[in-house]
Sequence to fold (217 residues):
Amino acid sequence: MRADPQPNIFTHERHGMVEAQIRRRGIHNQRILNAMSRVPRHSFVSPEYWSQAYNDHPIPIGEGQTISQPYIVAITLDALSPTTADVVLEIGTGSGYQTALLAELCQHVYSVELHESLAEKAKSTLTELGYRNVTVITGDGTQGFPQHAPYDVIAVAAAATDLPQPLLDQLKDGGRLVIPIGVPEVQQLQLIRKRNGVPVITVLEGCRFVPLIGAQG
Fold:
């Protein structure tokens, strides 16, 4: 368990978020609920947005990017079913909020962020909160991060029109990948399980993400 540097601020709001927006909407994985109760979402947005930090909507974080709404993050985590033994690849570090949650749930998280300014800010926040099982890389997330492949779990936090082949290639057989697929107006959050090298797709939810940018985006 990591320490919130401001443990008494927003505790009520954070627990209320988990109860009203997550548990009551069907997420019952206790490890995920516990992690979302611990991780201080306000630490991942600028102080001007602290009053909105535990509301169920995205918040701007700069570079035209957003921190995803808590419910969508919870759906992603629930579908991935992360374990303490899993090594995770995250595409789109953004603020680092989902990165922190994955770090609470898994062995190690490799997170790739296209925008250097966001990557550096996320590194700083994650370090301040005490996460040591996270590696943030600035680069093209559509190419994955082959240095530590294959991965048990891959989480993609930006929308692609199709699943980038490098990400499927870097997923372990039997692994789980969640990605938003579609055009800006119509997107689906999809769970992809890799079985004998073939993607098996389950549609989870309609969604709206910023576009995945890169050579395979």
